[in-house]
Amino acid sequence: xxxxxxxxxxxxxxxxxxxxxxxxxxxxxxxxxxxxxxxxxxxxxxxxxxxxxxxxxxxxxxxxxxxxxxxxxxxxxxxxxxxxxxxxxxxxxxxxxxxxxxxxxxx
Amino acid sequence: xxxxxxxxxxxxxxxxxxxxxxxxxxxxxxxxxxxxxxxxxxxxxxxxxxxxxxxxxxxxxxxxxxxxxxxxxxxxxxxxxxxxxxxxxxxxxxxxxxxxxxxxxxxxxxxxxxxxxxxxxxxxxxxxxxxxxxxxxxxxxxxxxxxxxxxxxxxxxxxxxxxxxxxxxxxxxxxxxxxxxxxxxxxxxxxxxxxxxxxxxxxxxxxxxxxxxxxxxxxxxxxxxxxxxxxxxxxxxxxx
Lengths: 107, 240
Known about the structure:
The complex is a heterodimer. By secondary structure, chain A is an all-alpha fold. Chain A has helices spanning 11-33, 38-60, 68-103. Chain B is built from 8 helices and 2 strands. Classes of the chains: A mainly alpha, B mainly alpha.
């Protein structure tokens, strides 16, 4: 059964990823610490978030060494959540608009 | 066992890329070739859990962007006074580093497990559990501070939009629950590895099945997922 056990990688790989996760977390904390605002803040937050998530899934969870069939089966469905995000952005914009029109008058 | 060995041997001759996907999924066969069933099932559970957390974060996004009341200043609420100076969001930053460290020790525990280094694997898993317990402890401290000192409730708070409380308790509470369950599972698996259950083919107390070192990797998948969810919570709830 010795051959049947996959996912043997040098410890060094994990240590490097670990260090990167520390660096990226520090960066995303510094975004808040230096009070960056607006699109710069949001794009940096999302960038560091995506990079960290990618490193964890790809290396720590060994996804990059799996077959494509598993990768697509697991990683594609969450991407479709973005459609849901889009729907809810429209919905909340509409709710905000109606609240602004009907509840703010006179206050 | 023979079946999985056969599946392993079959993968070396299977096509790669998109053709590989078509070949793996077509006709009556196991879709996930060189993955033990336990690992495939853990992945599918994590996928469903992803949708649960997505729904939480989505509803948080919806209530936050649809309220006309200003959102509370998150980075000031989670500030800590260290040495007479108020540092914004420092508690959450420390919690983030603790969880990342626990992911690192877990990844190495999986590695040493496959190398049959029982002691190192078990010790690293216990270290992971300790980090996890530390995280939950800090979360309990954070909740206590918010509820008792700041007066944050699911239906309102003194800082601004009432939806802050309900989103916060729901999202971090559910995540904290995941961490707590993970700590318990880590201790159980670490004990099995320590005793050498997987080398002696001891049957599990719950499923009565023989385990092997894949259990450590499956445990690792769950733990990394908990860390993964925190990455998203940290970004969209605390930093946004």
